[in-house]
Amino acid sequence: MGLQMFVNALLLGGLYALMGIGFSLQWGISGIINLSYGAMVLLGSYLSLIIFNMFHIDPFISMLFTGALLFLLGAFIYRFALQPLLKGGIVFTLIVTFAIRLIVENIILLVWSADYRTIRVSYAGSNFQFLGAFFPLTKFLTFLVAGVIIYLTYQFMTNTKIGKGIQAVALDKEGAMAVGVDDQKMYLINFALGTALGGVTGTLWATIYSFSPHVMDVIIGRVFIIAILGGLGNIWGAAAGGILLAFVETSGAIFVGSHWQEAIGLVIMVLVLLLRPHGLIGKKFFG
Amino acid sequence: MADNDIILDVRSISKHFGALKAVDKVSFQARKGEIVGLIGPNGAGKTTITNLVTGELRKTEGEVYFKGINVSRMQPFQIARIGLTRTYQVVKPLQGMTVEENILVGSLFGRSDRQNDLNHAKKTAHEIMELVGLDKKKEFKVSDVTLPDLKRMEFARVLAMDPEVIFLDEVMAGLNPSEVEESMELVKNIRTEKQLTIVYIEHIMKAVMGISDRIIVLHHGQKICEGSPTEVCDNPAVIEAYLGKKYAKEVIKS
Amino acid sequence: MVTQDDNKFNKNIILIIAAVIIFIFLPNFISGYYIRIFTAIFMYATISQCINLMSGYMGYLPFGHVMFFGIGAYMSAILMKLGLPVFIAIPMACLSAIIVSIILGFPVLRLRGHYFAIATIGMNGAIMTVVQNATEITGGARGTTFPIIMASPDVVYRYFYLAMLFLMVITSLVMYVVVNSKFGYGIRSIKANEDAANSMGINTTFTKVTTWAIAALFTSIAGGIYGYWMSFIAPDEVFDLMFITNSIIMMLIGGAGTILGPIFGAFIVETVSEVAWSGFMQYHLAALGIATIVIVFFVPRGVIGTITDKIRNRRIELSKKAEVTNG
């Protein structure tokens, strides 16, 4: 693999990693397969678009706002649309998240139509060279930001009271409840965090690529694979999964033809499910 | 012990979870028609042994012979179909189905060498329901049924399977004293009527001592004693592990 | 002795036969547009029955189940291109779908819940990609055609209307027989408590694989008929997960775990969709989404499920009262 291709894959990997973590947390810890995740990511994109067009605020700054807003939206959705249905099994929550995706898709179509959009910042075309490879500035910034956010998320999970509470319910719900942790509150915060990460991903995505409602399906397809590769609910696992997928896609496109690259990702995902359901990187818990 | 009387022969079974030996080379036998009590403190391995015998948990080592057949590698459903069954400590009712349907599933799928098409199975299920006293509640969904009745239903379900050996796993848990009495009577009567062999796993001393022909004591996954109820109560290792002198003497007196 | 239950059963049979007869002659009275809508309803009802069998009765949601629809469509197209008549091509396509379901079923049905659902999505995607790339055989991403039927549109519409109607009726009948048989109790026990089912003597692996094969059987026939009806199919169309999400919504609205549920659900959802599409086209996605959420929250057992529950509860109440007065 040439250096440039390596760099491309790596930069893409950062974005995928951030994107996958949100979905993986929601599925692995809160137990929700969030079919509206792609829609949440896109909301981040479109919201940053408005903010950029109306207030000329750079997306790398407005992402803080979209992140916060989508955190609140995620909390609202979990509390009122998902929490009441938890005892119904996966069908109900799955369909409700799908219904939410339909509603969000409709809103996006009404406001922005199906046209492809993008956020063209002033420095969009610039890049710099390093060791003979080109680093597009927006992709590089995205990679850095993704890295920082992933690190901060990890710190949150391991070094704050709430984060530790979330880890606790993920590992041993009864034990955590026995020491006074409110499990539903933890699932809610975790879910909202996932949505927030998705929203930030959307903003970053918007600086690099164009987007339209169609992209929702592309995103959902990717995050499924990333989450399973890395083991559900595992931050570093999902990060590694994201990078791995980016490499598979980038090299697959060159070596095997872009049609097959999707199949490769899917086949890997199915194999992982069958052979190592706890992910390539995740840990096995003794039952 | 006459060899052709032995219906269940557990030979040195073990279960290791990594370094933890949950069950450590446990052997015991049961004769046809016996009630064998299996006691021991929490975590001694009683339920694990049950799971190992029925195939629900894979053995690290050891063999199990049932009616002379080696069932060590068989799947749980195959073992159930030849007459080796169990109930669950924490009841596992078939959710979303009625009491009648729960018991019907037992008669449909239990022992395979009998007529268990839908019609015959329904008749069997009704007989068992009456035997156990649940026929008035047959249309109730299990979510509307009290715990004592759920336990009775699970017992009925396993009876409907036409078993030869039943592992009754803490079937008294959660019952008040009069319910315990009732339950003990039911088990004794049915054992005699249907010539069952029962491995009776229990905590409640009064229940086990009063009903068992023989007792096996477990501690930390190992068998530490085996014998009649009185022999077991006098055994110092058992007393030390579990009974407590005062209470043991009390039970022997009664 | 004729019991009260027997009388009710006979009454229901007569109603159903009457409904089927009405539907058979309905095309004589409605325009081609409505004939096509009903055809789609019958097709969705069929797929929904299959999803219902797997999810509503057995508790395994095969989100990627559309793969059998696509296999049915594509195998039929390929076989018909080779010269086979439709009455042989579609059954053979169906057979291939069954074989696939059995081969994939053994490994994949070991997974539970979410993992099973996602694995089926992965498999569907992989199969779709294979179809997209095996251009020589399948025509690739641009799709493939079926032989044109030499007849007037009116005749053609009725032909497929009746085909889908009979498919729906036969599928529903088979589901009814299966679910009420001894095997059906095995299926339901798996959903109720799979571990307990195993320990009661149910061969859960065999039950799961067979059930999925039944579901694949009818779904693949629906795919074959659909392809012939459309006379043109493309991979991203016949392997589209939307078929399944629609079917799931229909199953929930009509009533999961009932036999009439998917049929009613298909009628209700298609009607609402049509009304939303023609009345508020811009809002039809949101309308479907909101309607789904409302149903899931307020009528979780679906229309038929709620009715069935009410009837059963009334019967228990009455028997309780009888016990009090007699006992």
Counting helices, strands and paired strands, the structural category of chain C is mainly alpha
Main beta sheet strand tally, sense and closure of chain B: 6 strands, mixed
**SSE class of chain B:** alpha/beta
* pLDDT averaged residue by residue of chain B: 86
How many helical elements of chain C?
14
Number of helices of chain B: 10
Order of helices and strands of chain B: EEEHEEHEHHHEHEHEEHHH
Mind telling me the C-alpha Rg of chain C? Answer: 21 Å
Strand content of chain B: 15-25%
Please give the alpha-carbon distance between the first and last residues of chain C: 25 Å
Q: Give me the side-by-side strand order of the main sheet of chain C.
A: 1-2
The quaternary structure here is: heterotrimer
Question: What would you note in describing this structure?
Answer:
The complex is a heterotrimer of chains A (287), B (254) and C (327). Chain A has helices at 3-28, 37-55, 59-82, 90-112, 137-159, 161-171, 173-178, 183-208, 215-230, 235-255, 258-275, and strands spanning 127-130, 133-136. With 287 residues, chain A is an all-alpha fold. Chain A has one domain. A two-stranded antiparallel ribbon of chain A has the order 1-2. By secondary structure, chain B is α/β, with parallel strands linked by helices. Chain B has a domain at 84-163. In chain B, the strands form 2 sheets. Chain B has a 6-stranded mixed beta sheet, with helices on both faces. A 4-stranded antiparallel beta sheet of chain B has the order 2-1-4-5, with helices on one face. In chain B, strand 1 and strand 2 form a beta hairpin. The radius of gyration of chain B is 18 Å and the shape is globular. Chain B starts with 5 loop residues before the first strand and ends with a helix. Chain C has 2 domains: 1-30; 35-266, no CATH class. The model of chain C has no long low-confidence stretch (mean pLDDT 89). With 327 residues, chain C is mainly α. Helix content of chain C is 80%, strand content 1%. Chain C has a two-stranded antiparallel sheet. The interface between B and C is medium-sized, with 34 and 25 residues.
